[in-house]
Amino acid sequence: MTITIDDFPFKARFEDEGSPETCASFRKEMPFSSRVVHVRWSGEGMWIPLEDKDFQVAYEDATSYPSPGQIILYPKGRSETEILIAYGSVQFASKAGVLAGNHFATITSELDKLREIGVSTLWEGSKAIDFRVEP
């Protein structure tokens, strides 16, 4: 898969073994385009707020501490549905407290550029993001 943030393409892979239902549900939404903003409570990450979007998945391979490049989906509950992309140190949280999200994808290239874009979202604001399956 290719994830493009602010016109910069990153290679990524689905984590089908650990989160098969989440991966299948997200694939149905592709191509997926939105905006990514800097997290408010979680640390060094970006997120896509999805309000009441329902991917109809339960918790699988859930974590509160994604590593740089890991992408997690919070599937509705104590907080709104959201996707979080870690570019540095993260403890996934919201105004409702610490959350856990399904690790469903991992960016596998250019983590230094991911960090640069992540910091840029903090100081400059939201960026376009696009998830596409490679041909």
Task: Itemize the secondary structure elements and their pairings.
Layout: E1 2-5, E2 8-14, H1 20-29, E3 32-38, E4 43-49, E5 62-63, E6 70-74, E7 82-90, E8 93-94, E9 97-98, E10 101-107, H2 111-124, E11 127-132
Antiparallel strand pairs: 1-2, 1-11, 2-10, 3-4, 3-11, 4-7, 5-10, 6-7, 6-10, 8-9
Q: Keyphrases for this structure?
A:
single chain; 135 residues; alpha+beta; 11 strands; 18% helix
Structure, explained:
- β1 (2-5) and β2 (8-14) form a beta hairpin.
- The strands form two sheets. Strands 1-2-10-6-7-4-3-11 form an eight-stranded antiparallel barrel. The protein has a two-stranded antiparallel ribbon with strand order 8-9.
- It contains two helices and eleven strands.
- The protein is an alpha+beta fold and 135 residues long.
- The model has no long low-confidence stretch (mean pLDDT 95).
How many strand segments? 11
Strand order in the largest sheet: 1-2-10-6-7-4-3-11
Sheet of most strands: 8 strands, antiparallel, barrel
The coarse overall form would be globular
Kindly name the structural category. Answer: alpha+beta
| SSE string, helices as H and strands as E | EEHEEEEEEEEHE
| Average pLDDT rating | 95
Helix content: 10-25%
Can you tell me the residue ranges where pLDDT is under 50 for at least 5 consecutive residues?
A: none
Distance between the termini: 9 Å
Radius of gyration, in Å, reads 13 Å
Instruction: Give the helix tally.
Output: 2
Percent strand equals 35-45%
